[in-house]
Amino acid sequence: MSTVSTRTHNATTTRTHTATHLTGIVMGSLVDILSHLGIDASNLLQRWETDERAIATWIEERSLKAVILECHRPNGTVHPVIEFRLTYTRDGPQTAEFTASRARLARYLDKLGSVPRGTRYALFCTFHRQCTPQPGWSPGTRQSTGDMRSTSFGTLGRAPDARAGMRHYSR
Amino acid sequence: MKRERSVASTPTRSPMEAWQAIAGLVESTVTASPHITSAAVEHALEQARPAALALVAGGHTDTNPLTVVSGKVFCEIRTVSGDRALDLDENLNGVPGAAEADGFVLHLPPVEPHDDLVRKACRSSYHLSAEPADQATTETASRHSAEPVIDLSALERARDRR
Q1: Is residue B40 classed as helix, strand or coil in its secondary structure?
Q2: How sure is the predictor about A2, in pLDDT bands with cuts at 50, 70 and 90?
Q3: In Å, what is the CA distance from B82 to each residue of A46, A82, B8?
Q4: Could you report how far apart the first and last alpha carbons of chain A are, in Å?
Q5: In this complex, is the C-beta atom of B50 within 8 Å of any C-beta atom belonging to chain A?
Q6: DSSP per-residue codes, A75-119
Q7: Is A18 exposed, middle or buried (0-12, 13-18, 19+ CB in 10 A)?
Q8: Which of B14, B58, B81 sits opposite A52 (nearest CB)?
Q9: Which DSSP helix (H) or strand (E) runs through B136?
Q10: B10, A24: Cβ pair inside 8 Å?
Q11: pLDDT (tens digit, 9 = 90+) per residue, B56-97?
């Protein structure tokens, strides 16, 4: 009985750590990208705690499919679109690692083109299943990426039971 | 004397929680001085928050520390992310040495891509700086603060010449 309780506690602790770790990686990457592009990130930084809590909750309950950053240009077009996809695995071994590929993001930023002055951002989340409602987030419609060129930049961060990858869409 | 402190970030703490731990460490360090009010520190930290949060969340402070300079205190504060954060032995008590300080400066590293964000934050408070913290200046200031203001030997020479 005590062994089962210990395993349950460890699984819960790891899922919380996973949510914290991957939320940090996704949001840290978001603000890095916005700063690199010269897009005003003050709203994201101001409501950081709200978004951090929401994304971490959705990752922990395994409902979050992707966090999507859309760049809305003054001429009405939307690109690039950057998608952070979450992939969940079975609870990993206790020896599995928490890693972040900061160098990979830095290489991506080096290749990321510029956007016109006045470009603004929009943030969306998509889900595998019903998610727990979170304050500050409401239903919305994301930009279709069907006619956009897509490039995968691989895994940005790993945890014992999930990972976050990044995909770039452009015209 | 340069001191270093490490604060656990993800997966132990979220970026916001890590920044709050750093802010608490800075506040407890500099408010050891009766000349520095909590209100002044809180205002400076609030101005620093957006830039500091961006630096912490991006993992930039793992290798580019924030530096607090106050009185005899010269302390570099780094974050630790990943597996090492899980077992980190932290010391978040105030750094000793600021008891006689009459001011403080928190230096934020202006690293890409947040250099503009950092410089903008630093323009909003005299207690924030995007310039590299100079330990030599701190040590010189600490030594000078122990020296008498009046040069007694010069007074004696002037007296003897009369």
Answers
A1: helix
A2: very low
A3: 25, 24, 9
A4: 57
A5: yes
A6: TS-EEEEEEEEEEE-SPPPTT---EE-HHHHHHHHHH-----TT-
A7: buried
A8: B14
A9: helix B135-145
A10: yes
A11: 999 999 999 999 999 999 999 999 999 999 999 999 999 999
Render pLDDT for B120-160 as a digit per residue (tens, 0 to 9). 999 999 999 999 998 765 554 444 433 344 444 455 556 65
d(CA A49, CA A85): 21
Residue type, B116: D
Closest Cα partner for A57 from A20, A82, A102, A85?
A20
A48 within 8 A of A31, measured Cβ to Cβ: no
Measuring CA to CA, which residue among A83, A99, A90, A87 is closest to residue A17?
Answer: A99
Q: 């020479």: which residue's tokens?
A: B157
**Interatomic CA distance for residues B14 and A72, integer angstroms:** 29
CA distance A16 to chain B (A): 8
pLDDT (tens digit, 9 = 90+) per residue, A12-47? Answer: 568 899 999 999 999 999 999 999 999 999 999 999
Hey, are the CB atoms on A17 and B54 less than 8 Å from each other?
no
Q: Mean pLDDT score of chain A, rounded to an integer?
A: 90
* CA dist., res. B51 & res. B110, Å (int): 9
- Tell me the one-letter amino acid at B18: A
Of A24, A41, A99, the CB nearest to B9: A24
Tokens (6 digits) for A53: 């809590």
ipTM value: 0.90
B103: its two tokens: 């001011």
Name the amino acid, one letter, at B79.
T
